[in-house]
User: Fold this.
Amino acid sequence: MTSDLPTHYFRVRDNGAVVFRINTDNRQGRIDMDQIAVVNTNRGDFKPHGDQALTHADEVAINNWITTRQGTLAARDLDDMRRTVDQLQLLTQWALSRATDAQLEELTDDLLLAIHDLRSVLVRKKADRLNKA
Assistant:
């Protein structure tokens, strides 16, 4: 089993990860995980942990992970927004078919303000894109 292990392990955390080097070269055959770096995906950089010296292979693995992770996060963001569109459509159907007057009274002002804010931003961004073209 230990021969199938990757050389690095990335423990995901908010805005990045903690990077460990996997080591199975010991007499007991145990898996040792030595922390070697901390990654910040927002900035796209990393720092060695403590006085750890990173090898070229470590840096390549970390940079590859950062690139892959940023792509994953961007895809998730877009998927979240598509689900939000679905939720807005479901909300519209709910308001038309099942919502009580009391429920609508409770939510209408908050929804109208949020939708007005969103519309303002979308119209402004669309105008900016059209002006650039």
Observations:
- The chain has a mean pLDDT of 94.
- Strands lie at 8-13, 16-23, 32-40, 45-48.
- Residues 56-97 form the longest helix (42 residues).
